[in-house]
Design brief:
Elements: H1 12-18, H2 22-32, H3 34-48, H4 50-67, H5 75-123, H6 126-129, H7 132-147, H8 149-175, H9 177-207, H10 209-223, H11 225-233, H12 237-289, H13 295-328, H14 330-337, E1 359-366, E2 376-383, E3 388-392, H15 399-406, E4 414-419, E5 422-423, H16 429-434, E6 436-439, H17 450-455, H18 465-475, H19 478-483, H20 504-517, E7 522-526, H21 534-547, E8 552-556, H22 560-563, E9 568-573, E10 576-581, H23 583-589, H24 592-604
Parallel strand pairs: 3-8, 3-9, 6-7, 7-8
Antiparallel strand pairs: 1-2, 1-4, 4-5, 9-10
The chain binds adenosine-5'-triphosphate and magnesium ion (MG).
Adenosine-5'-triphosphate binds near residues 371, 396 and 441.
Length: about 600
């Protein structure tokens, strides 16, 4: 498989449109560190005027030398030399101070953007995270958070150079306006070239993001502990290596092609710029030879022209650099603009406590964004207060999906879910989430201390050792905790120094403890016991039935031995409830449940 990068036509309009991103970014920069930004600007204002001041002083010094041919140094000269020295010293000092403020700003800016990214990402819908194109944007946004320091620098230099340029051009224009316009004409092609290539660079970076993500993924598979077992046994090493080499080769190839073209055209334009400068230089020397201008003026003008030509080229290339960077920031700004769909309405009602009427799914249909396959199809389902319901069905029938809807991680495509008679969407989302404790099949194993692995269930209670121990006792994780010498503070997972790895079932006990820690009215266990041994599982369920008495509980399991004790068993198939009832009713009915149960029971005989 290879990827094709379609030639993307880039217009000037698009390039200018990218500059729209500059103001919001400037706002970000300012918010990151107002004082640092302000002092950076002030220092630059002062430092920008130094070159023209120094040139002017040089002119006077040279003219003074020319005028007096005596061997004594006139007092005026001392003043001029002194002033020039002071300016040179100030210039050095300012330069270093500006570097310092820039370095600080870079740190603060990266931090600010990263913080915003994290904060924003946590607000977004689950749907966003399950969408691959969103990951491309997120990935680019993440890179942009750290890679755009260059833009800040460029903006600072743009300010500095623009002021210097203006002050120097005043000197040039004063003498000869057409000389200055000649310079401008010489620099414009370079500017066009620069920004053209900057744009091509962006298009390339944009188009290879999916490939970069695959490359990163390959590196992860090849080097992570989780995958080491399979990679070794299946002998995947060579395959991973070759694919990695192929993809990175393609990326490098495309980059080299662009860089070469940039090199050729950039050099050509630079030569044109030099021709402009030396043309003016020849003209001025000729004027001085004719005696039309003094040597001091010659020095001033050649200095000013050399200076303004460098500054002008600098300003142009900085400008295209900034629009290039701004283009890269499109994704960051776009990402920060994405708003979650699932959020509390204005005037949202608080979650009911206690829940009196339960959940009521009415004609609920659902398909995932980006797919038209209906996972739930006109489903009607009730979960009453105090009821323990088991949800069964073959793989992919939508059990987990139903839980995501109930917990409002997704909204139904059509139909309504009621909770105590109100549309679920009318409740405050954060409060609603507090009432629901879910342990998903793919629960997270946090490479953090045991305390956190339980404490995430109720994060404000993470320091309440007693509550953590009680929760651990309920889930059976307490026996593990006792084994650890540092108890709750034992690091789990192998990522960090001193961490211990747990078996699948042991991790599940910690995950279960989270659900118990949470003071939720609804408990949902989505196959939480798949990795537990038979003894542990029957213990967990006996305890679960006990501990969740009076609460609403939804249990998803493929093991009928655990399911059979529920108040009601719901069989999900083709997006609908195929049959429901107690274990005995369903077995007597002789339908799907009965045959599946028989199948499992037979395998134990
Ligand atoms: N984020 C998603 N985007 C698109 N489709 C999805 C997504 N998650 C699940 N699906 C699809 O929805 C269907 C139902 O998935 P779901 O996870 O609800 O099944 P399940 O009943 O929990 O299965 P299992 O017993 O294997 O856990 C599956 O066919 C799956 O491919
Ligand atoms: Mg599932």
């Amino acid at each position: 498989m290879s990827f094709a990068v379609p030639a993307r036509k880039t217009s000037w309009n698009q390039r200018l449109a990218a500059l729209r991103n500059v103001p919001p970014v400037l706002r970000l920069v300012w918010d990151a560190a107002p004082a640092v930004v302000a002092s950076g600007i002030a220092l630059r204002l002062v430092s920008a005027l130094i070159p023209v001041a120094m040139l002017t002083i040089s002119k006077f010094i040279i003219d003074l030398i020319n005028a007096k041919h005596s061997s004594t140094i006139p007092a005026q000269m001392w003043w001029l030399l002194g002033a020039e020295f002071l300016l040179a010293a100030a210039n050095q000092l300012l330069g270093r101070t500006i570097d310092y403020t820039d370095a600080r700003l870079a740190d603060e800016f990266t931090r600010e953007v990263s913080l915003r990214l994290i904060q924003h990402a946590t607000r977004l819908d689950l749907a966003s995270f399950e969408d691959p194109s969103f990951h491309d944007v997120l990935e680019r946004a993440r890179q942009q958070a750290t890679d755009r320091i260059g833009m800040l620098n460029a903006m600072g230099r743009l300010l500095l150079q623009s002021i210097t340029l203006i002050s120097l051009s005043v000197a040039v224009v004063f003498y000869s306006p057409w000389l200055f316009s000649l310079l401008v004409v010489c620099v414009v092609p370079a500017f066009m070239g620069e920004s053209h290539f900057a744009f091509l660079g962006y298009s390339l970076a944009h188009e290879i993001t999916p490939v970069r993500r695959e490359v990163d993924y390959l590196r992860l598979i090849g080097t992570s502990k989780e995958n080491a077992k399979e990679v070794k046994l299946f002998g995947l090493g060579a395959h991973l290596h070759d694919r990695y080499a192929l993809l990175t080769g393609q990326i490098i190839g495309k980059n080299i092609k662009l860089t070469r073209r940039r090199l050729v055209w950039g050099s050509l334009f630079a030569v044109i710029g030099s021709i402009g400068y030396y043309g003016s230089y020849v003209f001025l020397v000729w004027q001085a030879l004719q005696g039309r201008i003094s040597i001091g003026t010659l020095i001033l003008l050649t200095g000013a022209i050399a200076g303004s030509s460098t500054q002008l080229q600098g300003v142009f290339s900085l400008f295209s650099h900034i629009s290039d960077q701004a283009l890269h920031l499109t994704d960051l700004i776009a990402f920060l603009k994405v708003q979650p769909n699932i959020r509390s309405r204005p005037n949202a009602i608080p979650a009911p406590r206690p829940i009196r009427d339960g959940f009521d799914f009415r004609d609920v249909s659902f398909h995932y964004p980006g797919s038209s396959r209906l996972i739930l199809n006109d489903l009607n389902f009730r979960l009453h207060p105090g009821e323990h319901v088991a949800l069964v069905g073959e793989n992919g029938q939508g059990k987990t999906t139903l839980v995501k809807l109930l917990a409002r991680l997704y909204d139904p495509t059509s139909g309504v879910i009621y909770l105590d008679g109100n549309d679920l969407r009318d409740y405050n989302v954060e409060e609603l989430h507090k009432e629901i404790g879910v342990i998903f099949q793919d629960f997270v194993r946090y490479d953090m201390p045991a305390r956190m692995n339980i404490g995430v269930g109720k994060i404000d209670g993470v320091d309440d050792d007693e509550a953590l121990w009680i929760a651990a006792k309920k889930s059976g994780a307490d026996s593990l905790l006792r084994r650890f010498s540092s108890g709750l503070d034992q690091m789990l997972g192998r990522r960090f120094e001193g961490g211990v790895d747990l078996s699948g079932g042991e991790w599940q006990k910690f995950a279960l403890a989270r659900a118990y820690l949470r003071d939720a009215q609804v408990l949902i266990l989505d196959e939480p016991t798949a990795a537990l041994d038979a003894v542990a599982e029957s213990e967990v369920f006996a305890r679960f039935a006990d501990l969740s008495r009076g609460k609403m509980a939804l249990l998803i399991s493929h093991r009928f031995s655990t399911v059979r004790k529920s108040d009601r068993i719901v069989v999900l198939e083709d997006g609908q409830i195929y049959e429901e009832g107690t274990h005995d009713q369903l077995v007597a009915h002789g339908g799907r449940y009965a045959s599946l149960f028989e199948l499992q029971a037979a395998s134990y005989r």
